[in-house]
Design brief:
- With 233 residues, this protein is an alpha+beta fold.
- It is built from ten helices and six strands; from the N terminus they run ααααββαααβααββαβ.
């Protein structure tokens, strides 16, 4: 089952398991973590847009929901972002409400030691969804690869390195880089085939589904045209 399918027949199980993971992580954590995750659960339950995979709620609305002032809301959001539980997709500027995304991989890591406390069925589902080795997976990039510029050889104009490609991704979106790209292991790049290893099956699936375009763009800028990406176990 694809864990990122947050709408559809099986979505309710994934959502309830996610909220359960947040709950038990808080209950088995410090008092500060308990309060922070309880507030996050309230916001997610009430306002999370699962189809768009984002939380867009103004600070004033969160303050009213949590029965706190807006300064406390800012502190809690910062704590969640610093803890990599939330990823900032869009900042709140010029009257626009900020958009945040749940970092599923970090929630799984944070709550993993508590899964068995919920029960063997929950533990099994979570391990199947967020752990486990993946076989070699090939991603065809006809929908992602950008066309070469007319009259130029992209390979000859891109004598960069994997490290520089990662630096580009970090500069474009530091939160997204820290949550997803930073743990990718570079294996090799030959004849247009980019070989990588993801830290988990879940991280691999998320990158394949949501983040392939920025990854390929950064790699092509530094290393040349990418024909396909292979994820190895």
């Amino acid at each position: 089952m694809n864990p990122m399918r947050l709408t559809g027949p099986e979505a309710s199980v994934i959502k309830y398991d996610l909220l359960t993971a947040l709950s038990v992580a808080g209950l088995n954590g410090s008092p500060t973590l308990q309060t922070t995750l309880m507030r996050l659960i309230a916001a997610v339950t009430a306002r999370y847009n699962w189809r768009a995979d984002e939380l867009t709620v103004g600070q004033r609305d969160l303050a009213r929901m949590w029965s706190v002032n807006e300064r406390t809301v800012k502190r809690e959001i910062k704590r969640l972002i610093d803890g990599k539980i939330l990823i900032c997709k869009r900042g709140g500027v010029r009257g626009r409400v900020a958009a945040y995304q749940l970092n599923y991989a970090e929630i799984a890591r944070l709550s993993e030691h508590c899964w068995s406390l919920v029960g063997p069925d929950f533990d099994l589902r979570m391990k199947g969804r967020y752990q486990g080795e993946s076989p070699v997976k090939v991603v065809q990039l006809s929908d992602y690869a950008k066309p070469a510029e007319a009259g130029g050889d992209a390979a000859s104009s891109a004598p960069g390195t994997w490290q520089r490609a990662m630096a580009r991704l970090a500069k474009e979106n530091a939160d997204q880089f820290n949550a997803w790209f930073s743990q990718l292991k570079y294996i090799g790049f030959e004849k247009g085939i980019l070989q990588l290893r993801a830290p988990s099956k879940f991280a691999q699936r998320y990158i394949e589904t949501h983040l392939m375009r920025p990854l390929v763009t950064a790699v092509e800028t530094e290393l040349g045209p990418v024909a396909r990406v292979e994820f190895e176990a």
